[in-house]
């Protein structure tokens, strides 16, 4: 969880200090600020899928510190500033889940948060060439075992269920997408006997 002051007002020539407090497990390895372009909202500028790292444009003003500090404010300092925290969590590199048709499988995610998150399962068919094209998996029954855990039960897996599954956790602070789980579905084996 990353928290900062929402709005900071200052007069020209004055100094400001804005802390960025980060609560994460594992603790952050890197906390930094950047001055976003005025035509890009904060949510658009930092919409990252799980495992992606923030990319800072070399021409963009940035500070490698959890405290944004500007001495002698100038008019070009006005605008949106974004605090970014990164920790060791990387895509899990899970091995594919392989299931035969008509068998059941359960996908599970654990995601603590304050406030407690809601969960939404998404799916991308293996045949889809657009990596950003995710479809909600509403036809299956999502079950919450606890407030910070969610599971997706696929009661009867079919060939069309083959693909990559993601769990989105969201609350009033923000949202996060899990690393993909590769579900490979193989058909029934028919013998020639």
UniProtKB/TrEMBL annotation:
The keyword Cytoplasm does not apply. The keyword Disulfide bond applies. SUPFAM superfamilies: Immunoglobulin. Keywords: Disulfide bond, Signal. It comes from Paragonimus westermani. This is Ig-like domain-containing protein. Gene3D superfamilies: Immunoglobulins. One of its GO terms (cellular component) is axon. GO terms for biological process: homophilic cell adhesion via plasma membrane adhesion molecules; synapse organization. GO terms for molecular function: axon guidance receptor activity. Residues 13-105, 115-184 form the Ig-like domain.
